[in-house]
Amino acid sequence: MKKILQVSVVICVAVLLGGPALAQTAVAPPPRPAGSGPSLAVTMQFIQAKLSEQGKVNFAVYSHNNANGTDWTNLMSEENTNVAADPSTCRISYHWKATRDGAVTFDQDYWFSLRDVQKLEVRTGEQNQKKVDTDAGNPSLDTRVDPPFFALVARRPGNIENHFLFTDEDTANRVAKAMVHAVELCGGGDKDPF
């Protein structure tokens, strides 16, 4: 009887001392409730439809180089076709064609996983062009675009960006909101806790 009592006391002490250590173990957050917005399939269908509706966006870029005082104008166009938003892989694929002054500058297929998207933002045409120019090593350029457009930008690791042009700011923001929801459902987003 004395041995059983000693074993019982040892087990109780072990449970009491080990309990706080177990309570500090990190656990994954609970899954999102089913009723917290549209399903991934519905969201991806919306994104695909809205991106496909945009068609070709034509615009002029009026540039001024602050370093040497030169000015010039380029006539540009961009178009995304064959857009496919696949909920089973959390992937958006499309064909991007861009021209400058009638010459094709890009004409190829692209895709990205929503799991890799760290940030989504909507930029004005000028903000988007400034980012493109700065990334290309030309931070001294100031530009104006006409007519105005809005770029929905999906940023991934390594500062890689995929962008989609819209002539309407409201549509760009609606698609951005849907894409944020899809990124969350796919497990993407900025993982930095601060």
Structure description:
This protein has 194 residues and is of the alpha+beta class. It has one domain (38-186). Helices cover 34% and strands 37% of the residues. It has helices at residues 2-23, 40-53, 125-135, 169-186, and strands at residues 57-65, 71-86, 91-100, 103-113, 119-124, 141-146, 150-156, 160-166. The protein has a five-stranded antiparallel beta sheet. A three-stranded antiparallel beta sheet has the order 5-7-8. α2 (40-53) packs antiparallel against α4. The N and C termini lie far apart (56 Å). Residues 1-32 have low confidence and may be disordered.
Strand content: 35-45%
Q: Return the domain count.
A: 1
**What's the gyration radius in Å?**
26 Å
Element order: H for helix, E for strand: HHEEEEEHEEEH
Structural class: alpha+beta
* Overall spatial form: globular
Task: Work out the helicity level.
Answer: 25-40%
Tally of alpha and pi helices: 4
Low-confidence sequence ranges: 1-32
Averaging pLDDT over every residue, what do you get? Answer: 86
Query: What distance separates the N and C termini?
Result: 56 Å
Q: What is the strand arrangement across the widest sheet?
A: 4-3-2-1-6
Number of E-state strands: 8
Biggest sheet, in brief? 5 strands, antiparallel
Q: In a few lines, what is going on in this structure?
A:
This protein has 194 residues and is an alpha+beta fold.
